[in-house]
Amino acid sequence: MPDITLKVLGMSCMHCKHAVESAVKALPGIEKVEAKVEEGKVEVYFDSSKVSVEQIASAIEDAGYDVEK
């Protein structure tokens, strides 16, 4: 089970999947990330002592996608 699942708006293709996953993977403490384009969500496994949910959401938003809060 992922540590967190975020609803991400604007993902529509494999490029989007790659962009979101790359942005999150660049953060410290990320163990695994999987963007599910069809479901509009991103599942993230991470070390909460190294990265926060807010930082993960910001990385996704910086990549050009909206995170539903």
Structure report:
The protein has two helices and four strands; from the N terminus they run E-H-E-E-H-E. It is an alpha+beta fold. It has a single domain (4-68), classed as Alpha-Beta Plaits (2-Layer Sandwich). The mean pLDDT is 96. One of its GO terms (molecular function) is copper ion binding.
Q: How many DSSP helices?
A: 2
List SSEs in N-to-C order.
EHEEHE
Measured distance between first and last alpha carbons:
20 Å
Shape designation? globular
Mean pLDDT: 96
What is the C-level CATH assignment? Alpha Beta
Query: Remind me, CATH topology?
Result: Alpha-Beta Plaits
Specify the helix fraction band: 25-40%
Number of DSSP strand runs: 4
What would CATH call the architecture?
2-Layer Sandwich
Main location: cytoplasm
Keywords: Chaperone, Copper, Cytoplasm, Metal-binding
Organism: Caldanaerovirga acetigignens
Protein name: Copper chaperone CopZ
Write a brief caption for the model.
By secondary structure, the chain is of the alpha+beta class. 32% of the residues lie in helices and 32% in strands. The radius of gyration is 11 Å and the shape is globular.
Indicate the topology.
Blueprint (H helix, E strand, L loop, with lengths): L3 E6 L4 H12 L4 E7 L4 E6 L6 H10 L3 E3 L1
Antiparallel strand pairs: 1-3, 1-4, 2-3
Helix pairs in contact: 1-2
Protein name: Copper chaperone CopZ
Main location: cytoplasm
GO molecular function, one term: copper ion binding
Q: What are its keywords?
A:
Alpha-Beta Plaits, 69 residues, 4-stranded antiparallel β-sheet, alpha+beta, copper, single chain
